[in-house]
Design goal:
Belongs to the NifX/NifY family. Pfam families: DIMCO_N, Nitro_FeMo-Co. This is Dinitrogenase iron-molybdenum cofactor biosynthesis protein. This protein has about 240 residues and is of the alpha/beta class. The chain has two domains: about 10-85, DNA polymerase, domain 1; about 110-235, Dinitrogenase iron-molybdenum cofactor biosynthesis domain (Nucleotidyltransferase, domain 5, 2-Layer Sandwich), CATH 3.30.420. It has helices at about 10-20, 30-40, 45-50, 55-60, 75-85, 160-165, 180-190, 200-210, 215-220, 225-240; strands at about 110-115, 120, 130-135, 140-150, 170-175, 190-195, 200. It has a five-stranded mixed β-sheet. Strands 2-7 form a two-stranded antiparallel ribbon. Helix 7 (about 180-190) links the parallel strand 5 and strand 6. It is elongated.
Amino acid sequence: MDSQPPSMNRETALRIALAARALPEVGVGRLLEILYQRVEGELNEESLQRVTVTDLKSAFVGADGEEGGEDIGIGLPALKEAVRILWGEGVGAELPQAVTLDSVPSGSIRVAIATNNGERLDGHFGSCLRFLVYQVGVDSCALVDVRSALETEFAEDRNGARAELISDCQVLYVVSIGGPAAAKVVKTGLYPIKKSGGEAREILADLQTIMAGNPPPWLAKLLGVSAEQRVRFERSGDEAAWA
């Protein structure tokens, strides 16, 4: 495969070329063959995000269970690095930079956002590249961590591992999440919210408005509002609804 297929854009071709460099003795042509065998449909940024270490490893193993001749020596670190590149880690736009807080603001909560690009909500829970973690208060919002989800690919329970990755958070924003995965998220102590997507800061600004106004019972509880105060919130909401 000496020529780039017409359907492959520049970003996709760049990821594949860089991933091939991370794999000893594997050229771009050989990697392309493997990807075409493992990925259904067109090769693009989205389909590359579905490639796993298991996909690549099994491609380098023969029917007898032994590694193929020219591929001997490809270890787990190299496979992990190749998948990281195929997913877009370190390729293209730089990742947003997290800050270290001197102290956790009183009355704040920790919020995770599933993302694939920059500082946006655009990821599905089970396939996003990373989670952005924010400490959010009524008057404050800080990105405190950026967590790659690549390591969860090696867990027997990948959804469980993803939930555990952000188990120190209270709220999770995702574009989509399946029922079984949502159950694991809730069991971890997270409150999942599905939203079509958008800029992370804008979504969190909307959350701050709700926090400062009339938060729903689940959010009021996270904010440490007493049961008596929560009842007052609910009553005021009912009065507003009937006004």
